[in-house]
Amino acid sequence: MSDSRMTRPSNYHRTRWAVWALIWGVVIVSGGSLALNRAAAEEKKAAPAAGGAYRPQKASDEQLAAGAKVYFKKCVWCHGPQGAGDGPGALRLWPRPRNFNQGTFKIRTTGSGELPTDDDLFLTVTNGLPGSAMPAWDGILTEQQRKDVVAFVKTKLVQDRNFQDTEFEEFHVISFDKQVASSPESIKRGLDVFLNKGKCVQCHGPDGRGNGNLTQKDDWGFPIFPANLHQCWNFRGNRRDPYNPRNIFREVSTGLNGTPMPSFIDALSVEERWDVANFVVSLCPKVKIDPITMKPAINFVLTAEHVEGELPATADDPKWNTQEPHFIGLGGQITRKPQNFNRRLDSMWVKALYSKDEIAFLLEWEDRTESHAEGANLPPPFNTADLTIPVAYYANKMVFNEVMPTVYPKDWKSYPQPIIYNDAVAVQFPATWEKFYGTPERPFFIHGDEKKPVDLWKWESDGKVVAYTGHGIEGKTGEDKLEARQVALKAEGAQFKDGVWRVVIKRSLKTDNKDHDVQFEVNKYIPIAFQAWDGDNGEAGAKMALSAWYYVVLKPLTPTKAYVYPFVMGGLLVGLQWWVIRKAKSMQNGHSGTRKK
Amino acid sequence: MATFWRPGMMPIQLLLTIGVTFLIFVIGHTFIKKTFGRGLPMLAQGALTWLAAFTIFKFVISPPIPSSLLYIYMGLITLVIGLFISANEVSWTESKKPIVDTLIGATPLHRGVRAVAFIALPLGFGWGTYTSIAPPKNFPEPPELRTVHPAPPQAIKVQDKQFTLQTSKNPFRVDVKGEYLDVGKEKEFFASNPFDPNAEGYVKYVKEGGEVFFRNCHFCHGDNLDGRGMFAFAFRPIPANLADPGTIAQLQETFVFWRISKGGMNAPREINPWDSAMPPWEEHLKIDDIWKVALFEYWHTEFFPRTWD
Questions:
Q1: Do B233 and A298 make contact, defined as CB atoms within 8 angstroms?
Q2: Which residues of B touch A570 (CB under 8 A)?
Q3: Segments in chain A below pLDDT 50
Q4: Of the CATH numbers 2.40.50.140, 2.60.40.1190, 3.40.190.80, 3.20.20.140, which one belongs to the domain with range A301-381+419-554?
Q5: Phi/psi at A589 (5° precision)
Q6: Distance between CA atoms of A396 and A420, rounded to whole angstroms?
Q7: pLDDT class of B251 with cuts at 50, 70, 90
C-alpha cells in the first residue's frame, strides 16, 4: 500500500480535498435549501387572503351529515345540542363556550360585526383558543373532519344569520398591507398609540395587564376581562404562534365581535396598527413555549443563587436582576373540597437568592384585582362544586345581581353573596425532606398528609406572613389541617402595582425546630411547591390555585479549587505531550535513522 | 423523527437504521476507492464508524436511551474498533502512521496540527476539569420512576358499598331493555347522538356520563380525553391520556372504577400518590356517576374495556 502511495501523482492530495469539499458542499447546500423551502412553504400557508371581498361556499348535505357526527361526539359537550354554548361543560367554564346561534365570532379576518370566513373558523378549530378550554383539534380531527364540523356549525347552528345571504351579509377580508418590522422605534410609536390615539390603556390597563376596566360584559351579559398583554400564550387568537404580531394586527383591525374590543381599522392607520402590534408583542416575556401545552416550558428545578452580604429587602432591589424569573404553572385545586374549577391565577414567576444565613423568595404573579378581606370573621369559602349556577356569576360580585339566563335555577338569588377574601400566596416545603432524600417520596402536594407534614409559608394581603405545619385536607369536610407556628418569617416590600403582586419572603437557612421548619442545605434538591389565592374570586383556604412539586437547589459557590485544578491538569497534560513527542521522535530516529525533522 | 419511530417497532427499526448506515458506508467507500484508487485510511474509517454509532445512539433513536447505557455502548464500540484496527500488522502500521507523523512533525501540515493540538488539548482538558468541579449552570432534574397501572386490590369499599373488582359489572352497560351489553356489542352505538332525546339504555347513560365528565374531569384530562386539559400543564405527573391505546384500553372497567373512586392519593405507593392531583371522586360524586363516567370514556375513545377472560 505504501508503495502505491509513492507512485501517486503529486496533485492527488489536492484532488482528494476538492472532492471532499464538493461532497460536503452538496450536503450543506441541499440541507439548507430544504430548510429554506420548508420555511417558505409555512410562511405561504400562514399568509392570509390578500384582502377584499369574499363569499363562503355552500356546504353539501354529505358534508353537513359528516360534520354533525363530529359535532355530536366532540363539541356538543360544551357548545350544547343547539350550539347555544350551554352544553354540560359550560356551567363551570369561564370564559364560557361560544354560543353559535347569533353568528358572533371573535377571531376573524373580516370586518367588525361581520361573519367569519370558512378559513377563520377552520383555523380556530385547528389551533384552539389558548387560555380557554377549547383545545387545538389539529392532530385529533382530520383536516376533512374539521372542515365538515365548521360547515355544520355555520349552516345549522348559526341561526340568526345566514352565511349564504348575499343581500345582508358582506365579508370584507382585512388587508395586512406592508408589515412594519418590529424595531425600538416602532415599539415606541406603538406605545404612543396604546396610550393616546388608540386609548388601549383604558381597558388593558397602564401596564397592559388587562386590569383597566373590570366591569365589562360580553354580548350575552357574561363578565369579561380585557386580555393581559403580558401573557401572549393565553391570547385566544394567537393561532399557536404567540409572538407573531400578525395576530395582534388582525385583532386590532377586526375587533372581537361580541366583546367590548372594537375594530381600529378606521381609527388607526395600517402603520399605527403594526406599531401597536409590535408594542404588544414586546410586552410578552420572551420564553421558550412548550409546543404541547402552548404555555411557557416548565423546568421543575429552580436554582437559588448565592449573594454576598445582605439579601435584597424589596422586590425592586437590583440584586434580583442577576436571575431570570422562573415560570410556575398553577392549576385549580380540585382534589379536595372546596374544589376550585375556576381559578383566576394560572401562573407565577419566582426568583430565589440566599446569603450566608438567609434565603429569600421573590414571588410575582398577575392578578387583575387587589383584594382585601371585607370584615373580620369570614365564613369558609362556599363550595362551588355544589352550585349549579355558573361559577363566573358567583365569583364576580360585580355582575352577580344582573342578567341571568333562564337555563339556571330560578332560586339562584338565594345563594349567598360572594365574599371577598385576602389575596394570598404560599410556598410549601416538606417539613423534613432529609428523611426521604434520594427517594421519590415526599408529603402529599396539597398541604401534606398525616405522616409527612409540610412547612407552609403563607403571606396574605393584610401584610401578615405565617408559617404553618400542614397535615393535609380532610376529605369529607374539607378541613385544612394547618397549625400556625412561631418562626421568624419576614415578608418585605409587598406591593400591588398595575395588576401584579410582588412579595419577598425571607427566612434563616437553619432553625432549631427541625421537625417542623424546613432546613436549607446547599447543593440539595429540596422539594418546593407554590400556591396562590385571588380573594376577589372567592378563593381562600383549600380553594386555591396550586403547582405540582418543584425542586429548589441552593447553587453552591464555585470552590477555589475550580480555578486552580484546571491549570494543574492542563500543565500536566502539556508535560505529558512534550514527553510523548520526544519519545516518538527518538523512537523514529532509532528505528529508521534516515528520517530527519 | 417521532413519526418514524413507531412504538413497539423500535428494535426492528434500529436494526434497519444500522443496516442502512452500513450500506451507505460500504457504497461510499467503494465509490471513494474507485475514484481515488485507494480507500479511506483505517483510522478515518474507524473514526467515521464511531461517529455514526454515536449519532444513531445519541440523536436518532427515540425514545432516547439513558446516558449510562450510551456510555456502555460507546465503550464497547471503541474497544471493537480498536481491536479491529490493531488486528493485523499492516492495518496497525497504517493506522498509527498519521498519528506518528503528527507526533514527529513529518510535514509542515503535520507540524501545524501538532502545534494546534499541543495548545488545544490542555485548554480543553483544563476546561473539562473546571466544569466538573464548578456547580452546573442548570441543575438537571433527578429522574423519577413511577408505575402507571398499579396492581388493583381484590375488593374496594366505595361510599360504604363493597365492590369485588373481579365480579363487579358496570350497571349502566345495558341495552334499551336493561339487559347487560357484552363488551364489544356497544360498537353499534359509537356513532349515536347521545343528545337524541329518545335515547335509552347505553346511549342515555353515555350522555349522563359525559355530563359528569365535562363538569369535573376535562379540566385535566381534556376535551378530547387526551390528558391535555386546561390544568394539565401545571401538574406532574401529567393527567392520563385516556385516548391513548395504553391506558383504559388495557384495563378492565372495574379497574377504571377503582381508580376514579379512590383517586391518586389513595393509590399504591408505586405510582407516587403524593404527586397525583387525581381526586378520590367518591368524595365528590355519586357511585352511579362514576360508573357512567367510565362508560362515557370508553364510548368517546371507542375503546373496549379488557374483560377477565
A1: yes
A2: 122-123, 125-126, 129
A3: 1-10, 42-49, 383-415, 593-597
A4: 2.60.40.1190
A5: -65, -40
A6: 10
A7: very high
